[in-house]
Amino acid sequence: MLKLLSNLDAHQRALAALAVAFIVFLATFNVEHLPFRIILTWNAFALTGIFLAWSRILLADAKESVVSAKLQDTSRSIIFTTVLLGHAEVYSRLPICWGRRKAYLAPG
Q1: For the whole model, what pTM was predicted?
Q2: Strand, helix or coil for residue 68
Q3: N or C: where does the chain have the smaller number of CB atoms within 10 Å of the terminal CB?
């Protein structure tokens, strides 16, 4: 069973953790205190993700890990590029925001 769980890729682990969190959220439907329900749901999601990640770390074959890491390098590049573009977009708006701030703070 653990070997099966250790062969899940990152997307499948995230979906499994999301499914567990959804089940916990539905199971705590009778709890009236919403923040408590949210914390329980988040803890279920996080602990499931941690458990699945550690099962992958402890039970994975070294060769499989190398192949998986090489496959994930492409997605890391895409994520890095997306983050750079997002920061470029935010920083392109800074002069506009700074100009509005100066106009707002100007006396008169």
Answers
A1: 0.59
A2: helix
A3: C
Q: What is the pLDDT of residue 82?
A: 81
State residue 40's pLDDT score.
93
Burial classification of residue 53, based on how many CB atoms lie within 10 Å of its CB (0-12 exposed, 13-18 middle, 19 or more buried): middle
CA nearest to 53, candidates 9, 105, 104, 98? 9
**Cβ atoms 65, 7 nearer than 8 A:** no
Degrees (nearest 5) of the Cα angle 85, 67, 62? 125
Together in a domain, 22 and 73? no
Query: 34: domain range?
Result: 1-60
How far apart CA 27 and CA 33 sit, in angstroms, is 14
Q: Are 24 and 46 in contact (CB under 8 A)?
A: no
The string of pLDDT tens digits covering residues 11-66 is: 888 899 999 999 999 999 888 888 899 999 999 999 999 998 888 888 877 787 77
How far does CA 56 lie from the centroid of its chain? 17
49 and 3 together in one domain: yes
